[in-house]
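BUG: 3D viewer hangs when loading the predicted structure for this chain

Environment: internal workstation, default settings.
Expected: structure renders.
Actual: progress bar stalls at 90%.

Input used:
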Amino acid sequence: MDELTQTEAIDLVGRYEAEHRIPATMRADVRMLGDLLGRVLRESGSAGLYDDVERLRIATIQAYTDETPEAFARAVGIADEFSIQRADEVARAFTVYFHLVNLVEEHQRVRILREREGRTVSDDPSNSLGSAFARLSEEIGSDAAVARLQGMRFHPVFTAHPTEARRRAVSTTIRRLSELLGDRDVSSSEANSARIERSMLEEVETLWRTAPLRTDKPTPVDEVRSIMAVFDETLYTSIPEAYQRFDDVLRGDHPSNEPPLVRPFVRLGTWVGGDRDGNPFVTASVTKKAAGIASEHVLLGLERTASRVGRALTLDATTTPPTDELVELWQRLRSADEDAAKEIAKRSPNEPHRRILLLIARRIAATRTRDADLAYRDPEHLLADLGVVQESLVAAGATRHAYGQLQHFIWQVETFGFHLAELEVRQHSAVHKKVLEEIESGQPLSELAEEVLEVVRAIAHIQKRYGPRAAGRYVVSFTQSADDLAAVHRLARAAVGPQGTPPVLDVIPLFETFADLQAAPGILEEIVENPEFAARLAATGRRMEVMLGYSDSSKDVGPVGATLALYEAQRQIASWARDNDIELTLFHGRGGALGRGGGPANSAILAQPPHSVDGRFKLTEQGEVIFARYGDSEIAMRHIDQVAAAVLLASAPSIEHRNEEAATRFSDVAAIMDESSRARFFELVKAEGFAPWFATVTPMEEVGLLALGSRPARRGLSVSSLEDLRAIPWVFSWTQARINLTGWFGLGSALEAVGDEDRLVEAYRDWPLFRTMIDNVAMSLAKSDDRIARLYLALGDRDDLAGLVLDEMGLTRDWVVRIAGGGSLLANRPVLQRAVKMRSPYVDALSLLQLRALRALREAPEGVDADPDLQRLLLLSVSGVAAGLQNTG
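Structure tokens produced before the viewer hung:
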């Protein structure tokens, strides 16, 4: 097939864009940034680069739109004919383009959210907290609904799992571009618009000229500082703003004149600097540094907030007289900090509330610098002082000031404390067992054993320095017995010695494999009889956390079997907790990709078994998901709104009854699907030679070369075994090959085994768990590509395994379309369908460049070192495909 003329190419692109009905503002932004990138490529790229980028772009669009073998072959030919150096530049250009498109999509979401701001009525009660509260009030009464609202908890836990493929330098440039795009929206003059466009051109050129790949793996401390950027830029201010918005909706008229209904329900957790499962670089010293960095950030934020709020409280004592308690507080603060109090009193004559806030700012600063004479002992003492100020303002009739910015400040202290995020430690049960054996042998301890004991001492140090909330949760990976949990308390006693006092520990079991999920209720029944566990239950009002692993269970039995096993484990654990009067929090170890439990959080919450949520939802957030959900203030608030709505609504009687009734009604369907999907999954992964074949047909080994995170990709075994391969590269590799196998494999066979299309359509309508599964698989399949998948699978010279994958992909796609309706994948989710289709041809271009590099690397003679230029091209394309698909592991 001949290449298109320029006129034909322009017409093709125009028709392609029109077909997807992109909003006009978004289309204008994409074209504007695309034009800027084109200008940069002409000016700063090598000769002919722009033309080559356009050739491949047009070819992949044509191959995507007419789907003829000739069109696809021409696109493959163009990618193959580039020199390695040219392919490198082209891959970089497409990657920059995806960063720009992602930015535009995010900006469009923010536009839409701002347009919707203030609208409180929704047909879907799970769409906002206000709608969910209204629905719950109808079912259980307003008083009971308020009680549930005020007891609600959303607990995202940030992890350093290596799935953020872009460098922080790239993220920073994108953030600056985002701000310029916002400025351009409100620009009121041509001169100003021209200035903004010049600045945007500079930032686009910065993206092009910035090396896209990290040269070195980040250290755990680097990862801690990266997470701090999200806190500084969005979460510190957006969380109290979200509380205020929710309260305004719930209060209705004159919300600022009354105490808030909303209590702070977000608690941040972090594994960054605490998760040492398989990561030898996370030491006790790193954990203490992580806690110190987090505390420094939040105390700086609180100090600045106290100063800002204080400077604004210029309320005169004649119009806003202080209460006796406020006068007493002033006397106490003044005697502790006399010189500063004198200067502040001079600058704030007859402004008692302002004076106190400014002295409070100094006490927070002293807490940060560890000035014992002035420092607050804990957040509760700071909250007590702020409460005195608030009550004084209320007594004087200044309720808007009491429940305005001062209330935001109080919410920040309640949410973040002096520690910012609750630092959690995670370690593998086998490590604990090995260390205890060493201790009991009486021989000198190994370096590993000393480090494990030092971790316990680090937790004790953090609790003493920053308060008991700062650390204390200890997650035990691969919990397979009650002894695995009791071991942590034995180690804690050994760490502090017979005369010492162990730190306060909440030991959390992590059930990951299929067998562990089935064994969970029995293990829990046994561990609560343990004296340390029983004492901790009594001290916390019988609160307990149990963590469920989505990644390894999916790698163990396939995505369908894992989904059903996780549901059943949650049902049994929730039932056990109710029988034993335990306030259960299930901790969901989800990833960003669908093969690791990813997908929309609110629909997943509403599909959970009865009483498994009960107003509390905790999950891991990692890599690209952290920045996608929390990197922008408006998007972060919207995400919190939707999750909170689902958490509140999940305990509505109607939702619990619906889920229980559906699970019972379709239990026969679940049983057939479970057995059939696992059989099909095992047929693939237990086939002789599967592991080395998998490593050949995907860039699994090469993914390990990417400097994504401090954590190794494997726990030590070679690629001849998948047993110890981490779930992230397992998912990441299939995603890169455009197969996405971990999100869907086995579902087609499961649905075929059921066979009754009418029954399955009924299940899709009435069974939330099934509907969520089908919708997530539709998304996963929509991001896959048969033609490109075939080229990857051909690298392995195993027609039997390749045929198995392709047959299952076709069968699954056919059944999903029939069940969801509409004639094509995602037809019932047009916005998402449009976004995927818009990106696919551009992702195809990067996939073809990756294939070209991977094929050459696989064909290299044994014993010959890999060509570094080919490796670089492959890694560049990995980064670009991750940006294009917007998920990795």
